[in-house]
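Dear colleagues,

For the upcoming journal club I promised to circulate an example of a predicted protein-ligand complex. I picked one with D-xylitol-5-phosphate because it came up in last month's discussion. The inputs are reproduced below in full, followed by the predicted structure.
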Amino acid sequence: MSRRDYFLTLRNAHPIVLPSLLSADFGNLEREVTRLEGVGVRALHLDVMDGCFVPNITFGLPILSALRRLTKLPLDVHLMIREPQRYIERFYEAGADCLTVHIEAVERPREVLQQIRDVGAASGIALNPATDIATLDGCLDLCDLVLVMSVPAGFGGQEFHEVALDKLRHVSRQVSDAVFLEVDGGINTSTIRRCAVAGAQLFVAGSAVFGSPDYGEALRQLSRLAVVSE
Ligand code: DX5
Ligand code: ZN
């Protein structure tokens, strides 16, 4: 099975809460991954920042490869970097199953999305709260995932921006069920349900998981709130 298909198997199980390792203990990544696997997480969200596209630097290829060796869970890699097209192949080789690039960081989104699919990963496009949703017109057919940011990309622990809800509703009307709708930033027990009602299926949570002494309980609580009956 291709890594893209592997990532797309998550479709059978949403809603899914993905812990963002940005808030994990970087001195004990193995322990963190083991703890997360132990409480049944379905996938991991990894935030790559370059200090240029966003004013923060996190980690890159070597850490991704190390995580790949630690787990078989699908790796959802959120690239907050300039010129992501230069690195797609290397991030794939390092172990990404889904690669998401920011619409604000690419001049030719269709080319990059196609490039991601061509290497064998699922393709994602992300947009910041301040970015007009219309910027996605013309590339949605090449997306396996649309990531609606509910905080400006760059840091964990920021407050949820309500504008994300309108965007989720808008995108969910525009795309088929084959496309994942993901939301990232400020997701907690008071915001997750509104995102689910607005159409999100994948929910990234950093502080709401790692800030809790019991990851399992935090994830279960979030997942319960994310279930909306049709
Ligand atoms: C922010 C990152 C997020 C971040 C979310 O730029 O993309 O994934 O870790 O953290 P919380 O859940 O704390 O807002
Ligand atoms: Zn993220």
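Two points we might discuss: The mean pLDDT is 97. The two ends are 31 Å apart (CA to CA).

See you all on Thursday,
B. R.
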